[in-house]
Specification:
The protein is an alpha/beta fold. It has helices at about 25-35, 70-85, 95-100, 105-110, 135-140, 160-185, 195-205, 205-210, 250-260, 275-285, 290-300, 320-325, 360-365, and strands at about 15-20, 35-40, 65, 85-90, 115-120, 190-195, 230-235, 240-245, 305, 325-330, 330-335.
Length: about 375
């Protein structure tokens, strides 16, 4: 079942998503989660992940039409949608949307109040703007990739979470919603240039401040928050699993070392010269029990210790289960919409949109009759 206009703080907001992969679809999913009516415009030859569309959660709650933008009828159909939309999201390389006839100038001629969201890795301008790339390259040049991992190993790859989704999708969503606020106040739309390199760099703002102040060393595994600190990191347990420790503040640290069984034996927490000794002592203690045993042992404490769970384990964690952090839709366990609202409550309104399945409904609801007959699905 595909999505339909429904509840949430963005109910009534119309979004056109020119289909792509990665951060664009995820940003559009966030808008759909918040209640927007998102119409995903698919290409006839497909444009999604190489998985069954029924499992592409980033397309949940949306509606899908298939349009050939290279045809006169297809272009006219998309511009009809644009005329009725509040937000458009595209993730092409710079210049491609213009060549297809759906660039900002053309779209704003049809809809002056449109918020035109552009999602790229390198941005719309700069020496690398026309070049191909992926998450790992974008976070590499911003310094964020170099922050992550052990000092004696290559930088650790954080999936595509830091670049595509945190530095990309989240900044695009903030940008288009801010521009939508401006458009509704003034009637003037604008272009939002969301570049992953900009967002990923911005995520490290606090660390840049610490670096300037001399409170951060420009290398991995040597700082308070990057694994260099023995009371902020992960430790292996007796069964080959891991526990995470984040006992930064003095009162939490004292509770941590007491419960760990190192009270009175651990080196002073501020003595960085003995951090190696402290790390070895903590590691040795964690190796004496299983993850489940340590989880139970720290239960109810303020020691800031938690088990490191796998993706499949996470939904069953008691706290996440109690909050409903995960939900089941169509037999697929997936994260529930976030954040939460006290009045305009959100929910997953449907499973992933199947390509082209919603053409007639969108044609009727958006009053774009020429869509019918364009769909190749």
């Amino acid at each position: 079942m595909a999505g339909s206009p429904g509840q949430g703080p963005l109910t009534g907001v119309r979004v056109v998503e020119l289909a792509g992969i990665g951060p664009g679809p995820f940003a559009a999913m966030l808008l759909a989660d918040l209640g927007a009516d998102v119409v995903r415009v698919e290409r006839p030859n497909g444009s999604g992940l190489a998985i069954d569309p029924d499992f592409d959660i980033t397309n949940r709650g949306k509606r899908s039409v298939i349009v050939d933008l290279k045809s006169e009828q297809g272009l006219a159909s998309v511009l009809d949608l644009v005329e009725r939309a509040d937000i458009l999201i595209e993730g092409y390389r710079p210049g491609v949307a213009e060549r297809l006839g759906v660039g900002p100038e053309t779209c704003h001629a049809r809809n002056p109040s449109l918020v035109y969201g552009r999602m790229t890795g390198w941005g719309q301008e700069g020496p690398l703007a026309p070049r191909a790339g992926h998450d790992i390259a974008y976070i590499a040049v911003t310094g964020t990739l170099g922050l992550i991992g052990a000092p004696d190993a290559p930088p650790a790859v954080p999936a595509n979470l830091v670049g595509d989704y945190a530095g990309g999708s989240l900044y695009l969503v903030v940008g288009v919603l801010a521009a939508l606020h401006h458009a509704r106040a003034t009637g003037a739309g604008q272009v939002v240039d969301a570049a992953i390199v900009d967002g990923a760099a911005h995520l490290a703002s606090m660390i840049h401040g610490m670096l300037a102040a001399g409170g951060w060393q420009d290398r991995r595994g040597a700082n308070l928050l990057d694994g260099g600190c023995p009371f902020y990191g992960t430790y292996e347990t007796a069964d080959g699993q891991y526990m995470a420790v984040g006992a930064l503040e003095p009162q939490f640290y004292e509770e941590f070392v007491e419960l760990l069984g190192l009270g009175g034996q651990a080196p002073a927490r501020k003595d960085m010269a003995r951090w190696g000794e402290l790390r070895e002592a903590v590691a040795a203690r964690f190796k004496t029990r299983t993850r489940a045993e340590w989880t139970a042992h720290f239960e109810g404490s303020d020691a800031c210790v938690a088990p490191v769970l796998s993706l499949r384990e996470a939904p069953a964690h008691p706290h996440l289960a109690a909050r409903g952090t995960f939900t089941d839709v169509g037999g697929i366990t997936q994260p529930a919409p976030a954040p939460r609202f006290s009045v305009t409550r959100t929910a997953v309104r449907g499973g992933p949109a199947r390509p082209g399945a919603d053409t007639e409904d969108v044609a009727r609801d958006w009053d774009v009759p020429r869509l019918v007959g364009e769909d190749d699905g």
